[in-house]
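In the current project phase, the collection of sequences with tokenised folds has grown. A sample record is quoted in full directly below:
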Amino acid sequence: MPVLRAFLCSVAASLAAAAATAQTPPAYPTQPIRLVVPYPAGGPLDTAARALAERLKDSLGTVIVENRPGAGGNLGVDYVAKQPADGHTLVIGAVATHAINPWLFAKLPYDPIKDFAPITLIAHVPNVLVMPPETAARYGIQSVRDLIDYARKNPAKLNYASGGNGSAGHMAGELLKSMARVSIVHIPYAGAAPAQLGLLAGQTELMFDNLASAAPQIRAGKLRAFAVTTAARAASFPDLPTMAEAGGKELAGFDVSTWFGVFAPAATPPAIVERLSDEFRRALATSEMRERLARMGAEPAPMTPSEFAAFVRKELAKYEKVVKFSGAKVD
């Protein structure tokens, strides 16, 4: 009997140890984390990624920012979707890659929902409706309501510039057209910077520009700002109304921004997803990160994985309608 009791105790101890081992998550990270930016170096997503990598080195070790641009962000995002789901390769996804491109491109190599585990939203960058003061004076447009009234009386006589088909500026213009039931001609450029230059040169008449890019021109009096495109006012221009505020009932719910956040491959273990989300959100809460994002015109908006997943699904559904209304397609 003592021998049997000893044997049973030994078995129980072994099972308990095995259970404890099974419940103990593996060490993470075990190697440098790669944070892929699917756009060229120097842009707002790249700048934010490098700032975060610096903040995270004490808690997650080395974080290497890797630029993999191409196909409107699709190449870098698809690359990460197909990497091992071990938390060592992440991507900075954006409104374009996860909400607009799925409806804009005829064939997308990844599924924005099924192929990713959302970690956290990083920030929103508001867009702003601007016109050169001379153009606004020529058409007698002093407000968003004036713009809508003029466009209704003069169908297709106004035009607006954007950084290209499917850009946030393009989508804001199409959302205005669909909600206010007006006709304004879209003039796409090869990037937001050339679009702004064309607007300043009088080649086009209005634009939904990135607030960070437009701010110096607004402050210098070279562009007149009418409203921001986000649901809430921008901290850097608190007196500037939102499109919903300035446009009345017709524009209720108007909300377009350039947002970006962190994603991992879909099968990444939940414990790693939670750890990453906690670390990124902790970094975003620091005054240093908030100040660095503010200099870009970005407003931090950290979310839990479940909140971010719900946000992406909502944005994807919203832009399906806007892209279909615009008729824009990329083969």
Observations:
- The radius of gyration is 24 Å.
- The longest strand covers residues 116-131.
- Residues 16-24 have pLDDT under 50 and may be disordered.
